[in-house]
Amino acid sequence: MSTVASQKRGFGAVLWDYLTTVDHKKIAHLYLFGGGFFFLLGGLEAMIIRIQLAVPENDFVSAGFYNELLTMHGTTMIFLAAMPLLFALMNAVVPLQIGARDVAFPFLNSLGFWLFLFGGLILNLSWFLEGAPDAGWTAYAPLSVTSPGHGVDFYVIGLQIAGAGTLIAGINFLVTIINMRAPGMTYMRMPLFTWTTFVTSVLILFAFPALTIGLFLLMFDRMFGSAFFDVGLGGNSIIWQHLFWIFGHPEVYILILPAFGIFSEIFATFSRKRLFGYTAMVFATILIAFFGFMVWAHHMFTVGLGPVANSIFAIATMAIAVPTGIKIFNWLATMWGGRITINTSMLWALGFIPSFTIGGMTGVMVAAVVADYQYHDTYFVVAHFHYVIVGGVVFGILAGLHYWWPKMFGRVLHEGMGKLTFWTFFIGFHLTFFIQHFLGLMGMPRRYWVFLENQGLDTGNMISTIGAFFMAFGVVVMLINVVYTALKGEKAADDPWDGRTLEWTMASPPAEYNFKQAPLVRGLDPLWIEKTEGKGQLTPAEPLGDIHMPNASFLPFLMSLGLFIAGFGFIYQVDYDWAYILLFAGMAMTLGCMLIRSLKDDHGYHIPKDELEREAD
Amino acid sequence: MSHDHSLNPETMPNEPEKATEEGKNKFLGFWFFLGGETVLFACLFGTYIALRNSTAGGPTANELFGLELVFMMTILLLTSSLTSVYAMYHMKNNDFKKMQLWLGITAILGFTFLGLEIYEFTHYIVDYEFTFRSSAFGSAFYTLVGFHGGHVTFGLAWLIAIMIRNAKRGLNLYNAPKFYTWSLYWHFIDVIWVFIFTVVYLMGKVG
Amino acid sequence: MKGWTGKLRAFALLGFVALVLSACGKENLTALDPKGYGADQSLYLIILTTIIMLFVLAVVMIVYTIVLIRYRKKKGQEDYIPKQVEGNRTLETVWTVIPIILLLIIAVPTVTATFDLADESAASDSLNIDVTGNQYWWHFNYDGQEVQTSQDLYIPVGERVYLNMMSSDVIHSFWVPTIAGKMDVNPENENTMYIEAHEEGVYWGKCAEFCGPSHSLMDFKVIAVSPEEFDQWLNDMQNADPEPEPENAVAQEGQSLFEENNCMSCHAIGSSSASIGPNLTNYGNRSTLAGVEDLNKENLVDWIMDPEALKPGNKMTGQYPEVSENEAGKIAEYLLQLDETDITPESAGNE
What is the rounded average pLDDT for all residues in chain C? Predict the structure, then answer.
């Protein structure tokens, strides 16, 4: 019904709807398109990097521009592509999976998105304003402090704003999952994707503040003359590395755990089998998150922390391989004895297993300190983390998108194009990154603008570049697929995959209030239980009544816009006094909106019972 | 309207701040937020501890700090935490006037604390020429203590705003969670100060 | 313990190294064909972990293949409902315990090697060299020997040499893959590592920590020569004349131009510890120009006239008056005949 209505509305009305929406399903769309846009941008940067490295001593791009590209590629992919795309899936699916009408804080949900978007815009506007950040996505001090121009300032401000949005999103999911579950949906009946979202949110909550502080210190050093990283005044640049990796390592799990959740759903559904070892899977997730906070210094083995610290962090790191291994074997056991349907979504999941296992293997290898003295900061590490992030997270996102696209948009992505994307991307991915393990060991450090002739690195780099083009081709096909599906795609049934969890009990796409009546959950895989018992649908846990809905609001957009304006003020106050106007006006706008939000009562509205009854007919 | 939240002694629930779903969410969400804030301050403390002796020839902690002033500030802030507890006690008894009174006292104590902190900073800057830019120690000190001061300022602004907004209409289930989350925030600020007092000032004098 | 690791090492070296030697990169740059103590240790762990991890991968892939062949949906199975299995305690215990054992096998030698490479007990009896990382070149000061050099680090073969490393600007990382793993070069604290080359040779070194636009051009060499040659080199360098007599008239003019154009305020010749720019005492013997190009007059003239073209972001650009091609040629002539010692990269045998 809602799609019909939206087709009738004008463009302005739709735009206003999305600018003010607090509906988790629409916010999921926003995250998807925002994250998707930045994913393409990051991919474009990657392609330029690979073209530059196709042949030795190439001068396709200059050294300075290359450093901007590699910095922006990493920053964009991690903060502006992978995380928002995962948030898109979490927003679209988690409230449905737990039987909730919306998230706990719809207003904050919207605020989180707009903060991310405006943070990402600031970061990328640097391309047009005196150059992008060029100190690597890790922005190690003192290089980042001394980097000339405003590039790194954009990095600091952009990430600070986007990071605030992420923190808000994390808290929102935590409270949603704890407080908003439907009757009978106990913790140990939650689908794995909900579980991983929950654990990821805990990681966000405790990891992001470390980045916030790191960015503040860097900002103060660059813009206000403090001396945190200024060795001449007693500063210490290693502090940045600690703060960055106390955030940075959990960040890896923030990305990969939701992907694990997605795969768990997909393996179970398309094997037509209950997830093998559900309890072990949950505890493995928690264990990974727990260890995730105790291994940050394995990024710093060569910093000179001493053999004791290096050994402790090495062993803690290796320990993570155990719960990860448990997961891999549980997925295999889920498929064992099942009836496996192979479609695009399942293909991505199946492609994930070998790819991620290789990434995990090299993960244990880089944990062996003395071996890491060779791997560290070389293409071996580049290969390792791309196997984990692309082979794990990107495959997970693409698997999840194919799986939940029908629920999000009411249409099924085209299978043929989906498979073409998979095969070209999968082959291209291994072509690009497998050889990089060897390039690293053959003496190629990462972040190299050029490699020299006659160093035995030519063939490997050429192969890698060719692989990148395969990946790019796959992404272009995916893009065509999305457009084609939007225009002519097959309409989706409510339950196109013979699903097991609550999101498949409702219309595709769901009504704005999700559940007319809260469902009664009787076990793990609630829909599957009802199917095997012949009912095929959930019993309502409450009588039909008025549904309370939150009001749409423009304030989140304005608050984020205020910070966006203030961000430019912070960046340019170093050079120009007029920038203080931006700084104070922007901050006033944000704080003013916060005051309005605090003081203006917002009780939401109700969809009356009789209207709901009429809809049923 | 059937969803009237205003309270009288008959409809007064035991815990007005958690009586509605919004209230419950806000309560839990705010606890999580404070969890994140804890990490935030932990990182600042870590940075401070790493840099507290990096004075680059400038004044040291021992030369700068006077415990009398800081002790007074500590007493003020601890007392304000106690008065905010009284305010919450009266909220649970649905005595709006007394709640406002105790919140007012809390605000006064908070402002006095803030005044002393500003005096303290001015004293260091003017008499010792010890600034944010003097040394890594200076940067770390002003950042850690300043972040706390910023939290106090924000807390006071927040308190004033909700006190004025609700002055006329009294307590209801819609605004009770707002007062309650504010009080959580205020306690948090207080706890942080206890750590600042110990790590920055006492250790600065002794260590 | 020793015998067990020894056997494994022998096996590993024979089987694996032989297998990959053909495709393991350029000699004296690759980490896969080690010729130094640290690199040996690293390669041993690399091979050990690779074998164990390939075993895990093989197990996963075998199960994976079986699953895909046996349980893929077949015709007529549309309505087949598999048994819903909750889990299997025995199986789950097995795939928890076996990885733990495998990791212990890796962890023990990892910790041993980590402590071994951090051993500084012999530092006071060994040759100590202060290494300074600069954007984008390396400086070496031979502790207590009054010898300074840049870019080419001469060491005696078969001896432990301790490197005490610090940066003058941003973080760099000292990496000579064929001899040893890397160590960061930080601006605030000194890091110490030791290297030991087993064979004479010219080994490629690279900066491995992102340090700015010319990060990829911050190469250097470690030149391992016989102990006798090393002693001679030290001796020659100690006695190098800070104001060497040029060999011909062109070089003579070059020397005057070198002085007039302010070059001396950064570049020292002789054992002066000034090191704003690279020390040029044995410049004529350098293995490369600026770490990356062939050292010849033509390249050197280009470098002197426009360093930015070769190394973007370097600190030399703009620090001296513009020189004509003719003048640059004379300076190059002067610099290229600065060869105070007979010990050169050629002395190291290969290359």
Answer: 90
Contact (Cβ atoms closer than 8 angstroms) between residue C165 and residue C190: yes
In the predicted model, is pLDDT for residue B3 greater than 50?
A: no
Q: Render pLDDT for C203-245 as a digit per residue (tens, 0 to 9).
A: 999 999 999 999 999 999 999 999 999 999 999 999 888 888 8
- Exposure of C125 by Cβ count < 10 A (0-12 exposed, 13-18 middle, 19+ buried)? exposed
Which residue of chain B comes nearest to A175, CA vs CA? B29
**List of chain A residues whose C-beta atoms are within 8 Å of the C-beta of residue B158:** 598
Please say whether the beta carbons of A360 and A324 come within 8 A.
yes
Residues of chain C in contact with residue A278, where contact means CB-CB under 8 angstroms, are 86-87
How far apart CA A447 and CA C216 sit, in angstroms, is 7
In this complex, is the C-beta atom of A583 within 8 Å of any C-beta atom belonging to chain B? no
How many CA atoms within 13 Å lie on the side-chain side of A460? 25
- Whether A158 shows a pLDDT value over 50: the answer reads yes
Interface test with C, best of A188, A373, A448, A528 (most C CBs within 10 A): A373
In this structure, whether the domain defined by C249-347 belongs to CATH 2.60.40.420 is answered with yes
Please tell me the predicted confidence (pLDDT) of residue C2: 47
Selecting from B25, B43, B136 the residue whose C-beta is nearest the C-beta of A233 gives B136
Chain B: list its partners (3+ Cβ pairs within 8 Å). A
Residue A171: closest CA among A194, A203, A212 = A203
A445 and C208 in contact by Cβ < 8 A? Answer: yes
- Identify whether A509 is preceded by a cis peptide bond (ω within 30 of 0): yes
Q: Is the pLDDT of residue A7 over 80?
A: no
What does the alpha-carbon distance between residue A601 and residue A554 come to, in Å, rounded to a whole number? 15
Scanning A127-156 for CB atoms below 8 A from C yields 134-136, 138, 140, 142-143, 146
Task: Enumerate residues 6+ apart whose C-beta is below 8 A from C13.
Answer: C47
List chain C domain ranges.
249-347
Q: State whether A361 and C31 contact (CB < 8 Å).
A: no
CA distance A599 to chain B (A): 6
Per the CB < 8 A criterion, the answer to whether C282 and C149 are in contact is yes
Say which of B33, B135, B174 has its CB closest to residue A233: B135
User: Above pLDDT 90, what percent of chain B?
Assistant: 79
> Within 13 A of C264's CA, how many CA atoms are on the CB side?
12
List the one residue out of A395, A396, A405 whose CA is nearest residue A485. Answer: A405
Please report, in tens digits, the pLDDT of each residue of chain C (351 residues total): 445 555 656 655 555 545 554 467 888 999 999 999 999 999 999 999 999 999 999 999 999 999 999 999 888 888 888 999 888 999 999 999 999 999 999 999 999 999 999 999 989 999 999 999 999 999 999 998 889 999 999 999 999 999 999 999 999 999 999 999 999 999 999 999 999 999 999 999 999 999 999 999 999 999 999 999 999 999 999 988 888 888 889 999 999 999 998 898 899 888 887 789 999 999 999 999 998 999 999 999 999 999 999 999 999 999 999 999 999 999 999 999 998 888 988 888 754
Q: For residues A159 and A115, what is the distance between their CA atoms, to the nearest angstrom? A: 10
3-class secondary-structure state, position A181: coil
Separation CA B28–CA B18 (nearest Å):
9
Taking 50 as the threshold, does the pLDDT of residue A3 lie above it?
no
Alpha carbon of A44: minimum distance to chain C alpha carbons (Å): 21
Which of chain A's residues have a Cβ under 8 Å away from the Cβ of B134?
227, 233
CA distance B119 to C237: 62
**Which residues in chain C touch residue A274, judged by CB atoms under 8 angstroms apart?**
84-86
End-to-end CA distance of chain C: 40
Query: What is the token pair recorded at A587?
Result: 């901050």
